[in-house]
Amino acid sequence: MSDPRKLFIKTYGCQMNVYDSERMAEALGPSGYVTTDTPDDADMILLNTCHIREKAAEKVYSELGRLKALKADKPDLKIGVAGCVAQAEGAEILRRQPSVDLVVGPQSYHRLPDLEARARKGEAALDTDFPEEDKFDKLADRPKAKRGPTAFLTVQEGCDKFCAFCVVPYTRGAEVSRPAARLIAEAEDLVARGVAEITLLGQNVNAYHGTGPDGGEWGLARLIRRLAEIDGLERIRFTTSHPNDMEDDLIAAHGDCPKLMPYLHLPVQSGSDRVLKAMNRKHTAAQYVALIDRIRAARPDLLLSGDFIVGFPGETDQDFEDTMELVRTVGYGQAYSFKYSPRPGTPAAERKGQVPAEVASDRLQRLQALLTEQQKARQDAMVGQEVGVLFEKPGRLDGQLVGKSDHLHAVHALAPADLIGKVARVRIVESAPNSLKGALI
Ligand code: 5AD
Ligand code: SF4
């Protein structure tokens, strides 16, 4: 048998791309590929791209320029572009960078083996359709290789919300939920292979409405409760959510489903009602705060994470102060904040009142200082507390392991290596800049 071909995938952007990259690697297994960690010895290089903020496409083009040089030494090397830049740019990529052999959008990964074969024959290999069939149904079942303790599982893709700034509804398409039976089977398989924690993924994960094994429609809470019945699955998380899809049962699950971890990423983007309206978020700041109160009533120690955009077109000083005020009111343990970046084809890109770059930078700095302060305070408050830690790998020091706490803080502790993949009780003894130190109980 000939040697396997080597596949190198470079993943940009969100966790869904991380999941998709794994599945692309698996889909190309039957075509004779194994993955490699270095582009230099690869027979195929795939860039799994992100388009959420500006310059993403330009970054991809400059990376492709660099890769072209590799092709000069290795004419058989195939180069592919996948992900949201592939979806948004399509044939333009082949035109601008002729060294590219294959372009595939996020909904067509099940067609990769065919595209790869076409690329090998020197034929055009472009697919940015939104096909009727479910890409996950068609992707080969995961091979039974042993896995690390944590895994992602995409349950829902696409978005129907059309926030005025966002390209996702255009690049990932309309909301599609995978059938619950398939997700249960995939989760059971992951657990059989050593996974103890599963993070359910979706662009709008709490809008999940898949067909249940009983034929009825299941929401995310129902799915989580069913997955929690799997023996050996210790922890469940989900991301990313929209405030308007926080159904009552999902809030309740945070209080009564012990495997659902006390961490919630619930982006609000802005604290100004005027800006929220212009963003087409369809909720007010007060509604968001009231929702947080209800979730915290169900799970008082919940660690809240969020996303913020500053400098949205038309954002005034007062609007920005409203965002600062909302952050003070809510209190975040983790957050991501960005300067608004106009995306071609989105309604906000056409809006008047683009905020000058210096003003946006200044606002971002102030917001990030506040969020960092809150994050540190929340981390410091863990000292003295007892938490569960899922150990993932050896730490830097001899005899040390690192893992994640229930609240997703990185924790290191002296612990025997056979605790890797297990959840142990740990007392937090110290708070360092980006991690906690604990002692086994
Ligand atoms: N500009 C800046 N930030 C954006 N995000 C999405 N689109 C844009 C944009 N055009 C941010 C939002 C979202 C996160 C994934 O990325 O905060 O929640
Ligand atoms: Fe984008 Fe808004 Fe959909 Fe999130 S909810 S993916 S920000 S359109």
UniProtKB/TrEMBL annotation:
Its cofactor is [4Fe-4S] cluster. Residues 145-377 form the Radical SAM core domain. Keywords: 4Fe-4S, Cytoplasm, Iron, Iron-sulfur, Metal-binding, S-adenosyl-L-methionine, Transferase, tRNA processing. [4Fe-4S] cluster 1 binds at C14, C50, C84. Residues 5-121 form the MTTase N-terminal domain. HAMAP family: tRNA_metthiotr_MiaB (MF_01864). Monomer. This is tRNA-2-methylthio-N(6)-dimethylallyladenosine synthase. It comes from Meridianimarinicoccus marinus. The gene is miaB.
